[in-house]
Backbone:
């Protein structure tokens, strides 16, 4: 699958309601600031770069809302080995799953997209995130994965 096809597939597969928690709010929790009331936010590259620390704090629905944006960003910035956005995205795909779970909420259709992204980032020669992507695949997303129940 080409990078463009993966991005289109991610955007059409992850169709969820607006997030209950924004990345900005998650980032404020991470930074020990008091999260402001929710307001409209556009998850473009600048937004993701400003609030990537919020990814670990997102609930399952909010995380799934941001996944297509994070997938698009990761594919387009695959050569940037220092990208904290890509690292936060890949870390969010690794176990252990949270309580309440995020990884376990992914449908079979969504899982195919996640696996395609991880395989692309793991096997694409231009990817600076091969090790992280392959580790996530091995730990949770492939048949017989190390930490998958």
Residues:
């Amino acid at each position: 699958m080409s990078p463009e096809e993966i991005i289109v597939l991610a955007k059409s597969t992850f169709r969820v309601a607006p997030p209950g928690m924004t990345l900005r709010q998650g980032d404020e929790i991470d930074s020990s600031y008091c999260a402001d009331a929710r307001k409209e936010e556009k998850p473009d590259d600048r937004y993701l770069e400003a609030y990537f620390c919020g990814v670990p704090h997102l609930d399952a629905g909010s995380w799934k809302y941001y996944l297509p944006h994070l997938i698009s960003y990761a594919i387009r910035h695959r050569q940037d080995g220092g990208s904290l956005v890509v690292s936060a995205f890949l870390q969010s795909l690794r176990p252990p799953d949270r309580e309440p779970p995020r990884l376990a909420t992914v449908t079979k259709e969504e899982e195919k997209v996640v696996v395609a992204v991880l395989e692309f980032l793991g096997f694409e020669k231009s990817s600076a995130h091969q090790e992280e992507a392959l580790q996530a695949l091995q730990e949770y997303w492939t048949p017989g994965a190390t930490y998958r129940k």
